[in-house]
Amino acid sequence: MKALNARRVAWEGARVVVEASTAEAYWWVNDMIGRYLGVMYQLKLAETRLRLLEDDEFTVAETGAWRARLDDLLAERPDLTPVVADLTKETSARLP
């Protein structure tokens, strides 16, 4: 099994989660984030969705915030790195 770079996983995860926040995949990823990462991450995703639906100029800022958020999570809980990697891959497949 190939070793996962947690920082890379955090970056890719952030990019995909932010993209999904305004797509039809939002409902699926919202459920999965709540299930695997916790309700606080689910609430942050809802905030991201609201912010981007109001003004998509926040995309870069939201991506940076999610990268930092996931980076911190994976530093504290490295066991979640494969979970976030799989979640990113599945979410990406659900995007148009």
- How many separate domains make up the residues? 1
Low-pLDDT parts are none
Head-to-tail CA distance between termini: 29 Å
Strand content: under 5%
Order of helices and strands: HHHHH
Overview of this structure, please?
This protein is an all-alpha fold and 96 residues long. It has one domain. It is built from five helices and no strands. The chain is globular. The model has no long low-confidence stretch (mean pLDDT 96).
Note the main attributes of this structure.
single chain, about 100 residues, mainly alpha, 5 helices, about 0% strand
Short précis:
The protein has helices spanning 6-20, 26-36, 39-54, 59-76, 81-94. The chain is an all-alpha fold and 96 residues long.
Write the layout of secondary structure elements.
Elements: H1 6-20, H2 26-36, H3 39-54, H4 59-76, H5 81-94
